[in-house]
Amino acid sequence: DETEFRNFIVWLEDQKIRHYKIEDRGNLRNIHSDDWPKSFEKYMKDVNCPFKIQERQETVDWLLGLAVRLEYGDNADKYKDSTPDGAKNTDNTAKNAEPLINLDVNNPDFKAGVMALANLLQIQRHDDYLVMLKAIRILVQERLTQEAIAKASQSKEGLPVALEKHILGFDTGDAVLNEAAQILRLLHIEELRELQTKINEAIVAVQAIIADPKTDHRLGKVGR
């Protein structure tokens, strides 16, 4: 909601960020003005926000981060020894880390459930239901988790790279040439990684052959 968004920005400035003096917050507080977007845009520039006013989700996240940093800076002694809520429940977390620890593997319902899952996932049956359950877990982790599905669906084009985060190591004196050199260096690194991967695959293949030789005693030779 536009009104709630504007009130939220005003509240952040009034209560947490306080970048402007009180008398200079009038334009930002006038949330019903047609000129409010211009005032907000000026405010974003004044607090050095790297996002545009159209990027509201990113802007809100950045402003909240700024507010948290300022809040901590004003009350560092109060917050420096604080313990995250999650750490207070360490004992409960440890107890819940192995939810199957007390599982009855001889329970007919357990066996029926494992068998149903194995059939659904087309996993070969085994006399030991725990072995089948382990196979199900491995398949789910490697193929069916959100991360695995996202990784399998990723385009081979790769992800955008922020050049400014990669140090070139030298300066050509020209910004355009610097950027081109960064791109070339990244492409070279990618080629080296592909080469290293192929080398590793070749080493593994050779080790597999060496580790399992076939011996022909009649010829007095070892090997394939």
TrEMBL record:
This is RNA transcription, translation and transport factor protein. Belongs to the RTRAF family. The gene is Rtraf. The lineage of its organism: Eukaryota, Metazoa, Chordata, Craniata, Vertebrata. PANTHER family: CLE. InterPro entries: RTRAF (IPR019265).
